[in-house]
Amino acid sequence: MQKKTGNKQWKILHGFFLILSAILILQPFAWADYTDFRGVVLNGAPADGGRFYYYDVFLKIDQGDPVYFTGISSQDGKNLNYIFQYFPINNSFFEFQVTASDSHGVQGLPSQWSETFYADFITDDCSSETVPFADPGDDQVTDMQAVEVMLDGGGSYDLFSDDTSSLKFFWECFSYPKDAVVNLSDPGHESPFFTPDKAGTYYFRLHVSNSVNDTDLNKSPVRYMKVDVVEDINNFVAANAGPPTKVPLGSAAILDGTDSQSSSDILSYKWEALNKTVNIINAHESVAMFTPEEEGTYTFRLTVITEDDFSSEITIVSVYDEDKVGDLLFQKIDPECVDCVHADIDTNNSVDGLDMALLAASFNSGKGLAAYRADCDFDKNLRIEKFDIKVFAACFGNAGS
Predict the structure, then answer these.
(1) CATH number, domain at 214?
(2) Structure confidence at residue 162 as a pLDDT band (50, 70, 90)
(3) Residue 158 has what DSSP assignment?
(4) Domain total for the chain?
(5) Taking a C-beta distance cutoff of 8 angstroms, is the pair 345, 398 a contact?
(6) What distances in angstroms separate CA 131 from CA 81, 105, 122, 383, one per listed residue?
(7) Domain interval for residue 368
C-alpha cells in the first residue's frame, strides 16, 4: 500500500510539474540588465503559439516605489535583444524591471530587478559630450521587381555638431519573411541597400555612434523602419499604424494611420484597442485619438480595407506619469546650445512664424514628422512636445544658419 501511495504521490507531483511547465511555455518572458551609466538591455521571447508585441518597463529611483516608465515595442513579435537607452536624473540610483506581453493579452512574469547602478551624466554647457540621434528614414513599400531597396540614415545627426561625416552607422535587419535572405550591401554605411527575394515585411533597426569604439556613452537610441515588399505594386495595401509614442497621463493621444498606402482607394480604417478598454474617438478614420485614464502600455491595431484586400498593423502608446518619471527625454540639453538650423523648417534662413506654424501642425502627434523630415523633433523621441517648443523658442528670431 505504501508503494501504491508513493506512486500516486509521484504521479500527482509529476502532473503538477507538467502543468507548471505548460503554463511557463505559454507565457512570454523577459529580463533586464544594465550596460553602463545610461543603458539597459532588454531580452525576451514570445509565448509558444503567440506573437510578442511589447515590454512594460518599470523602474525604481533611489530605491523608491516602482513606477511605470515606458513601453518598448518588439515590432513584429520576434525575439528582442534591445539596448534601451535613456538619460535619467543625475546623481540618482536606478533599478529596472520588465514584463513581456503578447498579442493574445498574455502577460509573462515580471523579471528580476536589474542591479542597482548610479547615473552620472551631465550636459550643463555647449561643450559637453552629447549622444547623436539615429534617423532610419521613412517606411517603404516596394515590390518583388525591385532590383535594390535603398535605406537612408542621412537624417541622423548630433545636435551639437553638423559634421555627420563623424557618425558611424550600424544597420541590422532583425526580422524578415520566413526563408528570405537579406544581405545588406554595407551595414556600416549611411545608406546601404538590399535586394528582396521574398514578399513580406522586413524590419530594420539603426543606431549611430560618434566614436569609432561605439561605446554605450556615445551610442544613439535604436530606431526602426520597415519595408513592405508586395507581389504587385499595382495591387497592394499596407497599413501603417505609426511609430510607438509616449504620452503624459492626462494628455490626448493621437493614433495616426495617414502613412498607410494602397494601389486603390482605401475604403475604411478601423482602430481597435487590444489590451485595454478605451474610448477611441474617430475609430473609423485615418487619424483617431483617445484620452488615457491610467498609466501603462496601450496596444492598438489598425486595419485598412480596400475593395479587394485589407492589411493590419500594431502600434503602442506608452502612458506615463510625468510627475514621477519626468518627461522621458533622451538627454537633457540646454536649448541655447542647439544649432538653430534645425528650427529653420522652411529653410529660408530665418526661424519665423511659418516655422512656428509647421511646428504647431506637428504638436503632440507623429503627424507631419515625415513631411518635415522630423526637424521639429529635436530630441528624436518621435513626438513633438514641451522640450521641442523650448528649443524652438530659444531659436525664434534667429538666423537658421
Answers:
(1) 2.60.40.10
(2) low
(3) B
(4) 4
(5) no
(6) 21, 36, 12, 18
(7) 335-395
